[in-house]
Amino acid sequence: MTRIKMINESDADGLLAEGYDKAKALSPLGVVAPIIKTMSLRPDFLAAIQAASRMHFTDGALTRAQHEMVASYVSALNRCRY
To answer: Is residue 4 part of a domain?
Structure first.
């Protein structure tokens, strides 16, 4: 069980519900990942993180796949499951 208070999808409304909908639409599995739900108490922050993530993971100097590989490697080094 998580120690971070999170708002479930069924209880989300307004800006949070919009954020969850965006997360679901972008998810390959069509789900809201738990890491997204950890920001549910601050929907404004969630929206900013989603915008930054879109910029970060678009093709530029690195492809999206390369960004994902770097992120996965760093997470493994930090023993972070995300």
So the answer is: no
pLDDT in tens, 19-30: 999 999 988 899
Q: Which helix (H) or strand (E) holds 25?
A: helix 14-26
The total number of structural domains in the chain stands at 1
Note the pTM of the prediction, 2 decimals.
0.67
73: left (phi over 0), alpha (psi -120 to 50) or beta: alpha
Q: Which structural domain range is residue 46 located in?
A: 9-77
19, with CB counted inside 10 A (0-12, 13-18, 19+), is buried
